[in-house]
Amino acid sequence: METTLKSSYGLVSAPSLREQARQVIRGLVITGQMRPDQLYSVPRLAAELGVSATPVREALLDLEREGLLEAERNRGFRVVSLSLNELNDIFAVRLLLEVPSVGDIAQDGLSERQLQELHQLAEATRETADTGDLIAFLDTDLKFHVHLIATLGNHYLTKMVETLRDRVRLQGFASDESSRDFLRRSASEHFKLLDYIRRQDRSGAEATIRRHLERSRGVWGDRHGAVPQSAGILDSSP
Asked: For residue 134, what is the domain's CATH number?
């Protein structure tokens, strides 16, 4: 079965159709609006995005390389589905990576410029949480956490954290009030985390990021196995 988009996203030529298509499709994947049980073809996605097939195909291949999609030869792409055990394994790795890393950041401290940049990103997550724009929230939330880890100057660590965060967001998010409440609480924790970092309180920062991650795991456990609602954006066709 193939799924199509109901409305065009009206992509424009600048700066890159390929990158714009990747961002839109990635957003649909991580919010659960593109489902593992559906097949998505390049021509139909391109038609709905209002661009040629080439940038859409390139964007889909980029997302396949990132592990978000898998290709079915001459048919289209499917969202990669993860089991609850796989999600828990990813969670365990994220704890090992992110908790001590955030502790190191707090212990060493950040410059005022770095703190201001992170505060701006935290404000962006709060604004998108308040408006209920799920795709925009997840994008700004990812930027906040990746930017935070990047202050350590370890490119490989930063890229690994970014990849793992995208993978877990394949599950369980829908555009409903419970998700909006989750987003608001997550956004507020960003400010608490920055406060501990500003005070160079390692234990407080580690406890906050651990709690932040554990609440995310609760969402996976509660919603794993349920079919995500399309929120009117995606539709199935025979």
From this structure: 1.20.120.530
